[in-house]
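The data layer described in this paper is built around a simple, fixed record for each protein. Because each token names a local backbone shape, the row as a whole describes the fold. We quote a single record here, exactly as it is kept in our systems:

***
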Amino acid sequence: MHEKSVAAIKKWLLYRPMTKDGRDILFSAKLTTTGVPEVDAQREFEVTHLTCFLGGMFGLGAKIFNSDQDLEIAQKLTDGCVWAYESTPSGIMPEGSTVVPCASFRECPWNETAWYQALDPMWEYRDQQVQDYFENKKAAEAHQKLVESQQEIQRMREEQAQAQPLGDDATIDEERPTEPPSPPGALDEETASEKKTMYEIEVENSGDAAPKMVVEPATSGETYRYPRPEPGAPKKEVKKKRDVGAGTRRLDGEDADGQDFNVAERPTSTVDSAEAEPGSNIGSSSAGASGGQIPLEDEDPNKPPTHLEFVKAKIANEKIPPGFVRIPHRHYILR
């Protein structure tokens, strides 16, 4: 029974986690299958307190069955739990957590980009959402300037109309040629009528010939589309998921056991371009896993976080050690 169990563990479960110091250690993953692992095996690269007995099991079996390979695995499994204990500020590893697996058992250099992407699986969508925000904001500002300019033109027209109650006739009166005085003696009716006609033509020709500027009223325009809908999710459903408190945005999911967990919360802070060093504390969530918050300064509540902002805020608020991805079970249960 021991030999069959060890063979299955080595084939399906053992993996090497990515660590910042490149430590050569092993852990046992969690595998889900319907009975045909070659087809539907799904592994969760977890680090759990209860699997720390595995090093001792491999060690005892290696001595009993004279297996040098199993003895080496036993040492790496034990060193893995030592690393997990050393990674936390309290010196006690969490009951359950997940880490980033290595692609190879032989070499596994530290890759911070891969770690950040594991912390934020929606990193591409998040950066596209930020780009959409700035584009829509620019379009909204341009539209607002157009509306204000048209309102100013309308205001000037109203002021001019109040200053000249007669409207366009007042302008015509100023430029209307004066009627020459009648010569001594009364004119006959035919001459007077002919004179009046010429006068009216002259007035029409001397009128204000400047074209009037016609400005179409600005429309309210289409409200810019923000936030960008999640891939494959209906708009109304996305809105319900994102409207969680003022200035926060939460993305919920389920772990492999069906338990709801908070993947991440929207930080309400921006990052200065100079602050690009990993591990700097920025952003804030409405309630981090530790119960603390990062102070905010000069925040635009409508701006979505970038991938870098989101990750750094998650690391700071949830106090995630390097190499770890998620710590859904922070308590430690003695059994």
Remarks:
- Confidence is low (pLDDT under 50) at residues 208-224, 235-297.
- Residues 2-110 form one domain.
- The longest helix spans residues 123-163.
